[in-house]
């Protein structure tokens, strides 16, 4: 079985707020997964992002920033060094080309999508 794109936690996004703490169900300015630790609504993001209205008020976990993969940058594909103006991910293409025996990644990505392999330009 080959590795698919879901191994990278890829999510399609709708707008420039997508995948940032300011649009996450776990808290806009304080993360309920990180014991209510302060986060950046505009620049914060992690691998546990779930889009939605923040309705939780109590901490639900005591995970560290490192455990959740918390970063402070705009993580969408449009801000990634691997994003191509053709709507393709050059990292996914490279892995498919160099290691086809291991990878079968959908290379088409959304401008406002994101994944945990995102690197700033």
What does this 3D model show about the protein?
With 121 residues, the chain is mostly loops. It has helices at 65-68, 90-98; strands spanning 30-31, 37-38, 44-45, 71-72. The protein folds into 2 domains: 1-17 and 75-121, High-Potential Iron-Sulfur Protein, Chain A, CATH 4.10.490; 20-74, no CATH class. The protein has a two-stranded antiparallel sheet. It has a two-stranded antiparallel sheet with strand order 3-4.
The backbone outline, from C-alpha atoms, is elongated
- Ends distance: 32 Å
- Residue runs with pLDDT of under 50 for 5 or more positions: none
Number of helices: 2
- Helicity range of the residues? 10-25%
The CATH architecture of the largest domain would be: Irregular
Order of helical and strand elements: EEEHEH
Q: Main sheet?
A: 2 strands, antiparallel
Number-wise, the strands total 4
Using brief descriptors, characterize the structure shown.
single chain, 121 residues, little secondary structure, High-Potential Iron-Sulfur Protein, Chain A, two-stranded antiparallel ribbon, two-stranded antiparallel sheet, 2 helices, 4 strands
Quick structural overview:
The chain has 121 residues and is mostly loops. The chain contains two helices and four strands.
Secondary structure blueprint with pairings:
Elements: E1 30-31, E2 37-38, E3 44-45, H1 65-68, E4 71-72, H2 90-98
Antiparallel strand pairs: 1-2, 3-4
């Amino acid at each position: 079985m080959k590795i698919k794109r879901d191994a990278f936690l890829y999510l399609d996004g709708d707008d420039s707020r997508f995948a940032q703490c300011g649009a996450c169900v776990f808290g806009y300015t304080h993360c309920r997964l990180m014991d209510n630790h302060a986060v950046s609504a505009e620049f914060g993001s992690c691998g546990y992002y779930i889009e939605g209205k923040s309705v939780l008020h109590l901490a639900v976990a005591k995970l560290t920033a490192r455990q959740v993969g918390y970063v402070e940058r705009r993580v969408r594909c449009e801000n990634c060094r691997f994003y191509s103006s053709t709507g393709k991910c050059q990292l996914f293409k490279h892995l498919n080309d160099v290691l086809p025996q291991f990878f079968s990644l959908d290379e088409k990505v959304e401008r406002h999508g994101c994944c945990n392999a995102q690197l700033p330009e």
